[in-house]
Amino acid sequence: MQSEQSFATAATEQQSIFRVENTDYYYGSFKAVRGVNLEIPVNKITAFIGPSGCGKSTVLRCFNRLNDLIQGAHIGGRITFHGQDIYSKGVDPTELRRRVGMVFQKPNPFPKSIYDNIAFGARVNGYQGDMDELVERSLRSAALWDEVKDKLKESGLSISGGQQQRLCIARAIAIAPEVILMDEPCSALDPISTLKIEELMHQLKEKYTIVIVTHNMQQATRVSDKTAFYNAEATDSGSKVGYLVEYDATENIFKHPQHEATRDYVSGRFG
């Protein structure tokens, strides 16, 4: 993969951190997603919306190659990160995942102390700086420091679900990614915790690019700058294949959609 300096230069020049070009995704012989084309802008929040089974999470996981961990999964087309094909032979998936962090649907702290949850990834990546400072900075960035600063030796599993999710965000931030992927990060949280995560996203986009999958259309309107609407259609074999219907500024998707299917979905007629 290119050096950090090369990536940083590319980001300022092109303003799109990812480009997805005519991409299909397969699980074995089953085509899960077809023909996706889109660009992810730098330091913005992009939301993926659509009904269940339309490929939102599959496309999201393509950005850090988490789908590679599923036997038989493979891609057609091309996805570039700062202009480099992330599925080319020379790319180290581990390094890609350091640059492109992930926050999952259910909070998944490690069964370690709050401190060690943050420090773990940094240690694995050979961090040589002041670990105490990194832990505090990461927790502050996730708006969690004031709530846990006196509990750093306690288990990450001992705090509330909303706090655990912010801990997972802090853990992702600690290894200095450029992008944070969020797969329905609030679906398991109460409304107050959801609001805190949404406020946090607005703060984080000043430093990071965020891509979020959400079933909550109100959340998409509240947090995202751009929205991609996916749908699915039946195939001759009886399975469903997902595809991108429409991708635009969030306001346009919800107020002035160009496709009838988008209009029906955002108005609640299906989905």
Describe the SSE topology.
Elements: H1 4-14, E1 16-27, E2 30-41, E3 45-49, H2 56-62, E4 73-81, E5 84-85, H3 93-99, E6 100-103, H4 114-124, H5 131-141, H6 145-148, H7 161-174, E7 179-183, H8 191-204, E8 209-213, H9 217-223, E9 226-234, E10 240-249, H10 250-255, H11 260-266
Parallel strand pairs: 2-10, 3-8, 3-9, 6-7, 7-8
Antiparallel strand pairs: 1-2, 1-4, 4-5, 9-10
Describe the overall structure.
The chain is an alpha/beta fold. It has one domain (about 5-265): Rossmann fold (3-Layer(aba) Sandwich). It has eleven helices and ten strands. It has a ten-stranded mixed β-sheet, sandwiched between helices. Strand 1 (about 15-25) and strand 2 form a beta hairpin. The longest helix is centred in the middle third of the chain and has 14 residues, at about 160-175. Residues about 1-15 have low confidence and may be disordered.
Give the overall shape, derived from the CA principal axes.
Answer: globular
Strand content: 25-35%
Helix share, percent: 25-40%
Give the CATH topology.
Rossmann fold
Order of helices and strands: HEEEHEEHEHHHHEHEHEEHH
* Overall strand count: 10
Largest sheet, in brief, is: 10 strands, mixed
Task: Record keyword descriptors for this entry.
single chain, alpha/beta, Rossmann fold, ten-stranded mixed β-sheet, globular, disordered N terminus
In short:
This protein is α/β, with parallel strands linked by helices.
